[in-house]
Structures are given as structure tokens and as C-alpha cells.
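Exam prep: given the inputs below (a chain plus acetyl coenzyme *A), describe the expected output before reading on.
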Amino acid sequence: MKTRIIGTGSCLPDMVVTNDALSAIMDTSDEWISSRTGIRERRLVKEETTTSMSVAAAKRAMENAGITAQEIDLIIVGTITGDYVTPSTACQVQAALGAGKAVAFDINAACSGFLFALHIADAYLKSGIYKTALILGAETLSKIMNWNDRSTCVLFGDGAGAAVVRSERTGLLAYDQGSDGARGAVLTCRNRENNNPYVKNPVEPDYTKMDGQEVYKFAVTTVPASIKKVVEEAGLTIEDIDYFALHQANIRIIQSVAKRLKAPETKFPTSLDHCGNISAASVPILLDEMNRKGLLKPGMKIVLSGFGGGLTWGSAVLEW
Ligand code: ACO
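Solution:
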């Protein structure tokens, strides 16, 4: 038996913020952002939260899968921007869905969060501990951006994506994941600093900082290697893959990965033009868009790949 994605869902906030709209409030331009990244607009929250978008995405995935909340054994949310330190986003989703028998927890693997959640769910399902899992990537990245730092804030957006997975005849064929904490300093956002009666630190929150060029180098070397490895492990070739659904960081990273794999760019669908980079939510949102457009047919071979902060990366080959 294999872990199969049987339903997908996603939720984006209502507010659309174009590159031109950003140019009105900071020193940037549509030309700079779109030529370097492929991003034309992103959605940012007003009333929505990481939890509310997660619940909406989860409900759509459950409806798409045709399952009830009582059938869910496990809920995992990949996020770095939960609304609370505790309870976890996953526990809040569980409560909102009424998924009383599920065990629920969050994981932090930044932009690889959905891929890591998929692999954890796969391990539980394969071991027979659980039968049905709801996995999500959900982020409100706009709250950890320094809106005075044009080099980072223009790149990111908010949203949530979800998938229901279950043991079936076909599904996940192979998996690769990795971490390189030694290079973690290239993409950071510090949590609260030590603060007690004996240690005083500033209470101002930290914001996302990135060495864009180092992240670029990491992505264009690690991602093709990880994809080649996982495709080979699945007993397939790059030509056998129908679609590569990659983390939506930057169109130039996606183009470079396509070139290094010698695969046509038409096999790399994108959502970054209208979503920006939504970290852990990028891959499940893209997958849901592909699913709802009817691009995914039974038997197709799909590669999913996430990469980012940690540093972390994960790739999977699925038979749809
Ligand atoms: N608008 C206008 N000008 C800008 C902006 C902006 N939003 N941001 C930076 N600039 C300016 C800089 O000030 C600099 O000006 P200067 O030459 O006068 O000093 C110039 O543009 C070049 O800045 P760089 O930071 O060197 O820009 P670069 O060409 O490296 O492009 C980018 C930045 C797009 C982030 C690039 O490094 C990249 O593609 N990185 C890949 C990593 C990535 O996309 N990360 C996303 C998140 S990480 C993840 O999800 C894995």
C-alpha cells in the first residue's frame, strides 16, 4: 500500500497587492520585481489568520477527498507563522473541524514544511498506526516581514494549502529529504530572545533576513540533485515525469532547475506570479490549482519539491 493524495484544497486572503501597489508605498517597481522573480502580485491578510486560512483549505481538501472530520486520524501543519506559540495551528484546525479523534501537531521546516509533513504522514500510514491524514502548509509571512526592507518584503505572500492522504494501491513512490543546519544563517527570523528578571533583551520582534544570492545557489544545486535522486529511486527517468510542482520562490530558480534536469519548462506549472512566495504553503496551493484545473490525471507521475530555511529540502515522486 502507498500513501496517496486523495484530495486538495487551498485558501488565499482576499486582498490582492500588485507590484504597482507596492511601488506606491516603497522604492521599488513592477519591472524590478517581475524581471527578477516572476512575481506580479501577492495576497496579504487583513482579517484572515494562519488558522482561518488553514481551516478553509482543510475543508476544501476534505470535500475534494469526500471524507468527514471523523475519519481524520492525524493533522500536521507545516508553518513558521502560527498564530499562537501554543496551541499549535494543527490543534486549532482540529477543533474547528471537529476532528475529535485526530492527533494534531505543527512542524517547522520552513519552505519544505509541506514535504516534511507528507513524509511524516507517510511513515505513520505505512506503519499502520493511522489510516487517514490531513497535511497542510500555511503561512502569514506578511507579519514576519520588515516592510522597510524592500529586498525581502516584496517576495512573499500569505495563504494556506492542504491535502488529504490515505493508504491506497498507488501514491507516493519515492522520497528524499535533507537538512543543512550549518548553512542556516542565510535565511533567518529570530524568535523571542531570552527575557527574565536576570536577563534583559529588547522586546522588539525580529524580521525575515535573507542572503538572496546564497539561497539562490543552494536552491539551484540542491533541488535538481534531490529530484534526480528521488526519480531514480522510483525507477523512473526525468522524461517519465509529467509535472514538477516546485516551491514557488522565484521563477529564475524554477527555470534553472528545469535546465539542469533537461526538462521542458512547460512541465513546471507556477503560481508565484499571483501568489508570491508562501513558504510551506507554496507547494500545496500549486498542487490544488493544478488539481482544480484538471491537469492531474490518474497514473501521471508528479514530482513535488520544497526547499528553504533551515536549510531544508524535500522531494517526492507521486503516481496520481
Ligand atoms: N526594488 C528595487 N530595487 C531593489 C529591490 C526592490 N524590491 N530590492 C533590492 N533592490 C536593489 C538593491 O538595493 C540593489 O541595489 P544596488 O545595486 O544599488 O545596491 C540591487 O537591487 C540588487 O540587489 P540584490 O539583493 O543584489 O538583488 P539580486 O539581483 O540578488 O536579486 C533576489 C534579489 C531576487 C532575491 C535574488 O537574490 C534571488 O533570486 N534570490 C533567490 C532566492 C529567493 O528567491 N529567495 C526567496 C525566499 S527563500 C526561499 O523561499 C527558499
